[in-house]
Amino acid sequence: MTAEQETLYTNARRQFDTAADLLDLDPRMRAILRVPQRELIVNFPVQKDDKRVEVYTGYRVQHNITRGPAKGGIRYHPNVTLDDVRALSMLMTWKCATVNIPYGGAKGAVIVDPRTLSIDELERLTRRYTTEISVLIGPDRDIPAPDVGTDSQIMAWVMDTISMHTGHTVPAVVTGKPLEIGGSHGRDQATARGLLYVLREAAEALSFSLPGARVAIQGYGKVGATIARLLDEMGATVIAVSDSSGGIYNARGLSLDAVSEHKQRTGHLAGFPEADAISHAELLELPCEVLVPASLSTQITTENAPRIRARVVGEAANGPTAAAADEILYGNGVFVIPDILAGAGGVTVSYFEWVQGLQEFFWTEREVNAQLERVMTGAFRTVLRVAQERRVNMRTAAYLLAVERVAQSTRIRGIYP
After folding, report:
1. CB neighbourhood size of 280 (10 A)
2. Please, is 219 exposed, middle or buried when counting C-beta atoms within 10 Å of its C-beta (0-12, 13-18, 19+)?
3. Helix/strand/coil for 44
4. 330 Cβ contact list (under 8 Å, min separation 6)
5. Catalytic pick among 71, 95, 107, 263
6. Cα 326 to the chain's mean position, in Å?
7. What is the C-alpha to C-alpha distance for residues 373 and 270, in angstroms, rounded to an integer?
8. Which of 15, 88, 166, 207 ranks highest by number of CB atoms within 10 Å?
9. Catalytic residue list contains 51
10. Tens-digit pLDDT profile for residues 1-54
């Protein structure tokens, strides 16, 4: 098996092993942290609109809950696997620890293409799945959030289902809810805005200006489109973006208003008249200052890593860089902001939403963004300091910081009984 053929879970454990080796982690601690603590598999029936019954498979995996309640999204996708959920739950543990918020890591999923369901079927599936995993989730135990294929409406159904079982409203059982029922201002843009803050810090560390910088973004979904807009407003030049239909490129810069209008009208980026068509692979290799992989895992591999010409790679996607490609990028002077740092804005504002829900005291968007900036810039500077002191890349530094924090919490608490 080559590095590019490894599963996301194998890659996540490989990255943990690298940090564990450098930390000289006790073998007993390594054994604890290398595997998920809990895995729940559920098979549940859903009645379709035509009265047929279909059985779906879902998961909820808690990797670690030493530092606080588990935190992680729920994914609806036809190809999701248990190993994917294991990997994503592990990444959530390290992501929360990297930005030092008091959560452990979890992830949930249902094997389903939500686009094939009516709104009523989607609600019935969500409420039944929620009921099945209700033995694990709760505001002081495990707090889900939206992920691929889910949104704020689905979180509202999850919250309502748990509330109906409990007999009273439980707003803090999920985050990413609509504002009307206890959601937080700033949540929709949180991942992209967190990425903006760390890209700004990286530009300063590397002595180049983000205003005027050329930006290429693979994945023009919710996060990709938002970071494109935020960087454009800051004065950067977005030269390329892509979605499932392919990529578009204009060396002079794209008009994001025109791009968004074209995608809204046609449903895809392909055919945008004011740019050249390029492939996903070509986008990654464009000359630019900032590259943002915001779509799928394992997009930068040992095969294309030598041709990456960006100065900074900000990983908005989970695991977009194969483990073996990291050293190539590092050796070529490409500064990679790893996913567990670059993508931590979402879980950080989810933490703020959870706190607001528990206290029933809500913040303004300005307050949310100010606190997000404080957390993300502080985390970046700490990771950069570790990278410089240990002479390692930013991913290894983030893992060193995160794994040590979780290991230290485990040592202090001890092993029960």
Report:
1. 17
2. buried
3. strand
4. 336, 393
5. 107
6. 19
7. 35
8. 88
9. no
10. 444 446 889 889 999 999 999 999 999 999 999 999 999 999 999 999 999 999
